[in-house]
Amino acid sequence: MILIGYEKCSTSQKAKKWLKDHQMIFDIRSIKDDNPSFDELKQWHQQSGMSINKLFNTSGRLYREQGIKDIIKTATHDELLSILASDGMLVKRPLLISDEFVLVGFNEDSWEKAFKLS
């Protein structure tokens, strides 16, 4: 598994702690230093089953500065993936990538269900 997050993000830190507490084996990838590519995002989006809008970090500075809230309304799927691929800070974090699932954001209940812990 790969945990993709941002070192200074408290939610990414909580996810990392949760994985360690549950003795999960995972690699860490910085979303800022190693931005997800268009193809990765496309694959993860399909695997997650979520709306493309849910992949955006809506509380981030770049999201607000670039007016993405309005762009989302008319942009095509590929345009939205290109926007996400342009800067890792636009992507909601953390992302947990495994062969079985893609988890976007950290919600303890959702993660427990994905790992069949509850």
Main attributes?
single chain; 118 residues; alpha+beta; Glutaredoxin; four-stranded mixed beta sheet; 4 strands; globular
Based on CA atoms alone, the radius of gyration comes out at: 14 Å
CATH architecture: 3-Layer(aba) Sandwich
> What is the CATH class designation?
Alpha Beta
What is the ordering of alpha helices and beta strands?
A: EHEHHHHEEH
Architecture blueprint of SSEs:
Layout: E1 2-5, H1 10-21, E2 27-30, H2 38-48, H3 61-65, H4 68-71, H5 77-86, E3 95-97, E4 102-104, H6 108-114
Parallel strand pairs: 1-2
Antiparallel strand pairs: 1-3, 3-4
Structure, briefly:
The protein contains 6 helices and 4 strands. The chain has helices at residues 10-21, 38-48, 61-65, 68-71, 77-86, 108-114; strands at residues 2-5, 27-30, 95-97, 102-104.
